[in-house]
């Protein structure tokens, strides 16, 4: 770190000692993004940990993490990745999971283009190709690639290597156009917990445009990648690429702010609130498809972490709108780029990182608890085991409520997508995925699930809860458990185990309700058949 950073940290330490507030250390030596370091330098509550520091509070790393690395974390530490996220961030795994869900919930999971995984599904693809002929266009992507590498369009079977490890998607050939250009949307989604899922969508994102005016895919223009692809890594190489000099201008540049752009579309009369509601449901459904896997890996490494707060992750959801204004999920990125190449990048990505650090459930007592537990490990090992088994449900409930209120107070630019009271129906999706997951790994599966309805009870939402309500400054971890065990009676679990017959009824009811919900999200007829929107002037009609 330079001298300015050291002086800044010294000033922060002095201010926090005076105000008796905690200053949290974040380890940034495994990330290449300078904007993250800038956010930390500008923050009053964070300081960058030295390269040899082992008692940091948060580690930010650009690559995925292994189970061994996660297992070594102390309970007060956090890392910016979940194990098992590849279930939606690898193109083939995303396809596999969403196809499985679409088979059982066809109306809920119709937001992903028809996809085949090669070489395993090459025969299925050939059969489909023979039925549809060469009238359809397909886009081929490598399974584990990014930044548009290895992507090409085709209308011929001869162009596809049936032994290649890739996915083939039905190309969305009629996208919504803005001033004749194709575009997609990069949305930043924050996941801060897996049991329950804690999903947040940031208000800002990026709108990325192609360079050339869009034309329907023909054999003569299939190789015009600047027409069909919106990837910044590809289009920035073109001399025609235009950077936006004003991040608040929604009409100029091939990369623009989603927040500003969204407002411009609303001014043009498009039903963007309705579209955003569909996108929000799309996000929750996608992450729900891997919830049991995330929870399994998390609990395998840190079973006694009832706060469920040792991991967080920013995901990049790439969304495409077609000419009927239907949102399609293209892919999910586990490490979206935080490189800054324009003022738009600076504004959007700075806000995303800043709001992410603010919403993390940081509490200085966790460090104190860990130190005391470590020092008294041998003396209190048996006591801890007995008390945790008897009181873990009550402790988890209180931590969940406390964290729920903390997050609601520190949302910043984020919007909570899950858990919400009107989204508790997604427990049925998670219930199905949990049973399928447990069965696949040979565990006798149960239908019991915590719905977390207590988060939305009137007496809970009105009551101001914090970690202090169950763990005071002078109270140790074992003292709290002893007091809880002596003063509280054990509560029997009143949740009945559903039968398979009841489960099918729940699934059918949920499927039907989702179908009705989607039917209600209709659009004005004048927009349905209008693929091109001109927003260069506010007065221009759609």
UniProtKB/TrEMBL annotation:
<dbReference type="GO" id="GO:0070740">
    <property type="term" value="F:tubulin-glutamic acid ligase activity"/>
</dbReference>
<keyword id="KW-0067">ATP-binding</keyword>
<protein>
    <recommendedName>
        <fullName>Tubulin--tyrosine ligase</fullName>
    </recommendedName>
</protein>
<dbReference type="GO" id="GO:0036064">
    <property type="term" value="C:ciliary basal body"/>
</dbReference>
<keyword id="KW-0547">Nucleotide-binding</keyword>
<dbReference type="Pfam" id="PF03133">
    <property type="entry name" value="TTL"/>
</dbReference>
<dbReference type="GO" id="GO:0000226">
    <property type="term" value="P:microtubule cytoskeleton organization"/>
</dbReference>
<dbReference type="GO" id="GO:0005524">
    <property type="term" value="F:ATP binding"/>
</dbReference>
<dbReference type="GO" id="GO:0015631">
    <property type="term" value="F:tubulin binding"/>
</dbReference>
<dbReference type="InterPro" id="IPR004344">
    <property type="entry name" value="TTL/TTLL_fam"/>
</dbReference>
<keyword id="KW-0436">Ligase</keyword>
């Amino acid at each position: 770190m330079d001298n300015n950073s050291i002086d800044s940290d010294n000033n922060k330490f002095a201010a926090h000692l005076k105000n008796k507030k905690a200053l949290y250390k974040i380890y940034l030596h495994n990330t290449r993004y300078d904007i993250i370091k800038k956010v930390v330098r500008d923050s009053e509550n964070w300081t960058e940990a030295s390269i040899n520091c082992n008692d940091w509070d948060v580690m930010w790393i650009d690559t995925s993490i292994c189970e061994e690395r996660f297992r070594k974390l102390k309970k007060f530490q956090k890392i910016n990745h979940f194990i098992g996220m590849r279930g939606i961030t690898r193109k083939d795994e995303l396809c596999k999971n969403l196809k499985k869900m679409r088979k059982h919930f066809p109306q809920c999971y119709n937001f992903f283009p028809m996809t085949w995984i090669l070489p395993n599904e090459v025969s299925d693809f050939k059969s489909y190709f023979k039925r549809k002929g060469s009238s359809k266009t397909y886009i081929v992507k490598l399974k584990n690639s990014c930044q548009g590498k290895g992507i090409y369009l085709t209308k011929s079977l001869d162009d596809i290597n049936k032994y290649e490890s890739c996915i083939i998607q039905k190309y969305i050939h009629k996208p919504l156009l803005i001033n004749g250009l194709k575009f997609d949307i990069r949305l930043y989604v924050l996941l801060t917990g897996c049991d329950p899922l804690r999903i947040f969508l940031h208000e800002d994102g990026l709108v990325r445009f192609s360079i050339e005016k869009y034309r329907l895919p023909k054999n003569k223009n299939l190789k015009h990648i600047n027409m069909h692809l919106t990837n910044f890594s590809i289009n920035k190489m073109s001399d025609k690429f235009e950077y936006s000099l004003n991040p608040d201008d929604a009409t100029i540049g091939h990369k623009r702010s989603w927040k500003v752009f969204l407002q411009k579309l609303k001014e043009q009369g498009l039903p963007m609130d309705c579209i955003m509601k569909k996108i929000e449901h799309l996000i929750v459904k996608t992450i729900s498809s891997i919830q049991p896997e995330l929870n399994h890996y998390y609990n395998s490494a840190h079973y006694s972490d009832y706060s469920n707060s040792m991991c967080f992750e920013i995901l990049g959801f790439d969304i495409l709108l077609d000419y009927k204004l239907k949102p399609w999920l293209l892919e999910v990125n586990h490490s979206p780029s935080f490189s800054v190449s324009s003022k738009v990048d600076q504004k959007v990505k700075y806000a995303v990182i800043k709001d992410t650090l603010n919403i993390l459930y940081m509490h200085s007592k966790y460090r104190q608890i860990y130190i005391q537990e470590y020092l008294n490990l041998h003396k209190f090992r048996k006591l801890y085991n007995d008390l945790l088994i008897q009181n873990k449900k009550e402790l988890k409930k209180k931590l969940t409520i406390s964290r729920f209120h903390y997050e609601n107070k520190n949302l910043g630019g984020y919007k909570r997508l899950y858990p919400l009271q009107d989204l508790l129906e997604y427990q049925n999706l998670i219930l199905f995925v949990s049973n399928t997951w447990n069965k696949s790994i040979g565990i006798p599966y149960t239908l019991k699930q915590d719905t977390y309805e207590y988060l939305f009870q009137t007496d809970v939402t009105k009551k101001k809860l914090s970690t202090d309500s169950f763990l005071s400054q002078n109270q140790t971890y074992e003292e709290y458990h002893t007091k809880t065990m002596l003063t509280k009676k054990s509560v029997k679990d009143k949740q009945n185990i559903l039968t398979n017959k009841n489960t099918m009824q729940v699934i059918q009811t949920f499927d039907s309700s989702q179908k009705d919900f989607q039917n209600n999200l209709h659009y004005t007829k004048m927009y349905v058949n209008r693929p091109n929107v001109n927003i260069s002037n506010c007065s221009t009609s759609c």
